[in-house]
Amino acid sequence: MIDLHAHTTASDGTLTPQDLVDLAAAKGLCVLAVTDHDTVDGIPAALARGKERLVEVIPGIELGAKWKGDGQMHILGYYIHSDDPPLLDRLCWLRAQRRERGLRMVRRLSELGVPLSWDRVVQLAGAAPIGRPHLARGLLESGHVESISEAFSLYLGSGAPGYLEKAELPPAEAIGLIRGAGGVPVLAHPATLKLTGSTLEACVERLAGQGLAGIEVYWPKHTEAEKASYERLGARHNLVATMGSDFHGSNKPAIELGMGCTEGVDVDQMLRALKSRAGAMRSARQVVGQTVDVGQPRSRLEKQQVVG
Asked: Tens digits of per-residue pLDDT, 258-289?
């Protein structure tokens, strides 16, 4: 079993990196990717615990991407160099934007007659970038709602009165940052794009042209028909088909670690393909200043050399 999409307390999960790895070991997972939102802070601790528990930890990240569609676009990055300066600089900017958004949402909730302590939200977030789950926990503690899901449906979800859009990177920049950090960029849970048919095809083709290297086919909320469609789509654009649960702990109690692992899928081949792409990214990263811009392959030959 493997799980290539999981979050810790470094972002909006409820398990520490160490506890996440412990849970993976208890469930019999041999490979776990730590993919926190907009931060790499949980990676060192997860890597260290992975060595202790004999769980291979893949250093990863999940970046939100701003685009013109109605759905959400998230880009996962695998095998990243978590000390990459351009990546860290951009993550610092995103963290500041998240904090400003959180403060504005608290103010809006107060105007709606739902007072929430900003200091408590900051405490709940701890060292993690402030996000809506921290506001939701604050609302639950304050007695304004009876569950985290109710906090989102009444106040914090898209279209709810307390909701504000967050700052996100353009897809090409998110992909370029991951590639520049030696990582493999993968489209997370494509169903959340809310696209089908030719419009989905055009979107994925455009992302592939910008350097996308994989697509998360096996995700708990994908139907069997969607999985088959995304698998075919990935094959047409030379994308690695990946799997992940999108585990967040008690913030998403219906999702269990390892839930995205699908029987009959050759996970060894999947991991070999990802590692091969990562090796190509590392090679490109070493010569980026000389010949190739890993964020924007300009020709078919360059794309083959960079993406693999």
From this structure: 997 777 899 999 999 999 999 888 776 665 54
Q: Distances from the Cα of 262 to the Cαs of 22, 245, 266, in angstroms? A: 22, 10, 9
* pTM exceeding the 0.90 threshold for the entire prediction: no
CA distance 27 to 1: 9
Structure tokens that stand for 300 in this block: 């078919």
Domain locations in the chain as residue ranges: 2-90+169-307, 99-156
Pick the CATH number of 99-156 from 1.10.10.10, 3.60.10.10, 3.40.1360.10, 1.10.150.650: 1.10.150.650
Quote the CA–CA distance of 56 and 19 in Å, as a whole number.
15
Residues 6+ positions from 191 with CB-CB distance below 8 Å? 219, 221, 222, 226
Mean pLDDT across 84-95:
95
